[in-house]
What does this fold into?
Amino acid sequence: MSILTEKIKAEGRVYPGNILKVDSFLNHQVDVSFMSALGREIAEKFSDVEITKVLTVETSGLVIAYPVAEALGCKMVFAKKHQTKNLAGDVYTADVASFTHGTVYEIRLAKQYLNENDKVLIVDDFLANGQAVRGLRQIIEQAGATLAGVAIAIEKGFQPGGQQLREEGIRLESMAIVDEMDGETGTIVFRAE
Ligand code: G4P
It folds into this structure.
């Protein structure tokens, strides 16, 4: 059993609407040593490919992207969701539709931090419908960079994002795949590893 599956079994909670709460170690409080270990496991899975940059989107993506980049020995860059005065001028942008929140938001990345020489690993905490990954891929395309793969902590296997990426031939590594959740009983069914 992966260290993440074990951690979710111990600390994850199922909320109405098929939401898995992992606030105790990832989405609110951060179990730093655990996330570092998970980052090393992800980096190990991609040890056969060249990666020059890890790309994520704020906020929770940072919690996993940071230790992955540290283990790979490369820089990490994150797309911003909020317009800030400090991020003016030359930016890549993409729209992301959030299924969970029912909103559309724009993500931005300063052009100076991604270019055509980069080989990029997208990293995120959750993969559900895959909209965040889609937006990040648009940014990689705008930069003329190469997508090396996608690494996810928790994939919700009952939503289509993961399957779509695999069908497109994208290298996707999810450290835990949840195929079913039951809010009444608290049961979480994981895909066999
Ligand atoms: P998608 O990108 O795969 O299409 O996912 P979706 O729109 O459904 O997810 C929107 C937000 O909700 C994302 O965070 C995602 O990480 C989070 N999310 C989706 N399903 C779950 C779940 O079961 N449990 C938890 N804890 N989060 C979930 P976000 O809005 O970008 O939040 P943040 O990173 O700014 O904190």
Notes: The pocket of guanosine-5',3'-tetraphosphate is lined by residues 19-22, 27, 59-61, 98-101, 125-132, 156, 161 (CB under 6 Å). Residues 40 and 71 are 5 Å apart (CA to CA). The first helix runs from residue 3 to 11.
